[in-house]
Design brief:
Helix content: under 10%
Distance between the termini: 7 Å
Order of helices and strands: EEEHEEEEEEEH
Radius of gyration: 14 Å
Number of strands: 10
Structural class: mainly beta
Number of helices: 2
Largest sheet: 7 strands, mixed
CATH architecture: Beta Complex
Strand order of the largest sheet: 6-7-8-9-4-3-10
Oligomer: single chain
Length: 137
């Protein structure tokens, strides 16, 4: 586990640049590729972090929210370019899921692999992600 001193601040954003964010990540990160209907269709690659490690730095007014099914997950898209850079996941309502593909390039963090997540059977598997938004010491 990385301590807060080991975390690197990585920036990212949408395609048009209206929405920008920062996220604090450990030196090695495991991302997740989900097979649920929305992630599969949009190609979202998840990096789930605690609430305290994510900051929206610009573009709040450019965000548009989309919800479906239970209405718990808050899918946030840039209203100008349509890119979903991050969202509030139902599996981790105490954190954020950042789209790996929307991170600016950095040498400070290594994405070690994309772990598969069976989102087509979400109810049976969601608990396996719960620890990702917990603060680690």
């Amino acid at each position: 586990m990385a301590s807060s001193a080991d975390l690197a601040t990585v920036t990212g954003g949408c395609h048009c640049g209206q929405v920008r964010f920062e996220v604090d990540l450990p030196p090695q990160v495991e991302s997740h590729g989900c097979t649920c209907s929305i992630c599969a269709k949009t190609g979202f690659i998840h990096i789930i972090v605690p609430e305290s490690r994510f900051r929206l730095t610009s573009g709040e007014a450019a965000l548009h929210e989309y919800t479906f099914n239970t209405g718990v997950a808050r899918h946030l898209f840039c209203r100008h370019c349509g890119v979903k850079s991050f969202y509030k996941p139902r599996s981790n309502p105490d954190g954020w899921s950042v789209n790996e593909t929307c991170l600016d390039r950095t040498d400070a963090v290594e994405i070690t692999r994309i772990a598969p997540f069976d989102g087509q059977n979400w109810e049976a598997n969601a608990a396996a992600l719960a620890h990702l938004s917990q603060e680690q010491s």
